[in-house]
Amino acid sequence: GEDLQSIPGVGEAIAKKATELITTGKLGYYENLKAEFPQGVTNLLAIPGIGPKTANKLSSELGISSADELEQAINDGRVAQLFRLGEKTADNILHQIQALRRKDQRIPIGEALPVVEEITVALRSIPGVKNLTAAGSLRRFRETLGDIDLMGTADNPKEVIDAFVALPHVGQVLAQGSTKASVIVSGGLQVDLRMVEHDSFGSLLQYFTGSKQHNISLRERGRKQGLKLSEYGITVIATDKLEKFSMAFITLRVIFSSLWFMAECTAAITISSSDRISCG
Q1: Which residues of the chain are under the pLDDT cut of 50?
Q2: For the DNA-directed DNA polymerase X domain, which residue ranges apply (predicted)?
Q3: Which of these, 36, 73, 98, 224, is most buried using a 10 Å CB contact count?
Q4: Helix (H) or strand (E) holding 94
Q5: Torsion of CA 70, 75, 79, 80, to 10 degrees
């Protein structure tokens, strides 16, 4: 305990708790706090949109301690009957539970490609659509996908979004705005569409292609050279000048050349003639 107190900012109380945790594997203070909450509250708090008050109400009044039990209670109407919740809140919670489950489900890329083809063919027929392509794990050609990310530009983005949510493949609209929307298509697959400015399309496509580790490596390489890489382009930190990239087919080569990027991911990066990349 005394050795820990030699660390700046660590006093007697923190040192005692750290020592207790290291020597016993438990922390009495934390265990006492957990005991104050009804069983299962922490499980409910893991669901987006459920705060402490709602979680406590669901647990204490309905005896709910898991997402499965909560889903059943929503379907049979018990959640909507609770004071200050109602049907709209119950439906929103149900959507969040379903979204969490979809994140854990992945489908083969071969099943996703026909869906993407049908959607992009339909949207490209809209006048004013200039770019429309897949991003994320689909553009990286991962073997399995959790969802589909599409990006594009158009003279009238809202018109494209409205057409997207009205496609016959769409079974449920999760969110809709003037420039982006998320839907569930037949088969339970989530598809997200984002429409951006023409002059930012290339930069945004590179950013949303990922992967996360790939972007981290790019940003770190840029930082070492006085550059800041974001979804909007490359900024020279010293002058705060932003360089945007509107052409998707040159973006990867330009950005990689600007950063002198060589593979820093756990998997090798390859750039084909179609500018497809593979990185982790």
Answers
A1: 1, 248-251, 260-280
A2: 1-263
A3: 73
A4: helix 86-103
A5: 150
